[in-house]
Amino acid sequence: MKGKLKYFDFTLIIAPLLLAAFGIVMIYSASMVSAIVEGFEATHYLFKQMQWFFIGLGGFIFCSIFPYKYYQKLMKIIVLGILALLISVLIFGEVRGNAKSWFVLGPISLQPSEFAKIGLIMYLASVYSKKQAYINEFNKGVLPPLILTGVMLGLIVMQPDIGTAAIIFLIACSVIFSSGIRLKHLLLLILIGVITLMVALPNMVTDVRVSRFTGAYQPFNAPDDAGYHLIQSYLAIGGSGLSGEGLGQSVQKLGYLFGAHTDFIMAVIAEELGFLGVIIVIGLLATIVLRGIFIARKCEDSFGALLAIGISSMIGIQAFVNLGSISGILPITGVTLPFVSYGGSSLLVLMVSMGIMNNIAMSIKKREQEPRPSHTKPIPTQKAYFKGGKQWSS
Length: 394
Description:
By secondary structure, the chain is mainly alpha-helical. It has one domain. The chain contains 14 helices and three strands. It has a three-stranded antiparallel sheet, covered by helices on one side. A hairpin with a 2-residue loop joins strand 1 and strand 2. Helix 2 runs antiparallel to helix 12. The longest helix is centred in the last third of the chain and has 34 residues. It is globular, with a radius of gyration of 22 Å. The two termini are 33 Å apart. 45% of the residues are buried.
């Protein structure tokens, strides 16, 4: 272990840990009142998130040491496990937030769709890294992995959890786009997606989902109904100023702002810590995303590069959707802010993902620092082009 420490990517250690630690503090601040109202101790959500943090920390350490290339050998087990979880939750799961998305085992709650994110990233990275020789052939190189992707998305939509399904779809698009797919094939996939959406849309439209759109883009037309949550978010953000009202001094968390410690935690951060607090959180998230892209570009292994770009996309897309929801750019979807919002399954998956990315970075650093034997030929380098129409080249 000591020998491995010198290869650790400390950016991928410090930034996630700072965000998670900061999130624990803000969860306590945002949830004290709601925990008491629900009949718990004021520290209820604080201690639960801390428990998940330490479990996630163990996952981070393990995945930092475990060689990422071995995930390819375990891919069948990973895929079958994810499918089993997604099917089982439809049968045995518990309904929360109008979606049957949770397993509840005593004090432990698990959301299988969170594990599906990293599972699908691994699967797509593994398959498309093996298909580089014929990535320009749509039927042979592009289409087959999309069948399993469609099955996973379908199972999540059946819960129904449209927000998570949309994020997983965008993550899948980022991995596929980065694999070197031709632009015309990418446009064909977009066309297929649009047609599928148009066919499924009549069954997906409900009064609740329509109200989310009207609440996002016309909140003041229904200030006591569809627009209520967004208006409360505006009040929290708008009156924050540069440094906010002070830690613990939020008014909106006192029963006005729904999901103050989950979906809308950034609104509480803005109210209590102001513009400075918001910029720090966004800066740390951006650091992780950009570091992941940098690692993907330096990685000589196509599987590792696609894995890194998928993890970076997962964090970036989820952060964008959450911030877009609390600011009225996007409809409210119930998506948490990575590392910061309350949620054990989300935090665990994110910490494991950071461990995997750290292991990829360690392999790059080890390759760069360890001298090659003089009698061996240099290893051909590969360069990742994260745009359509380009392939991995040696």
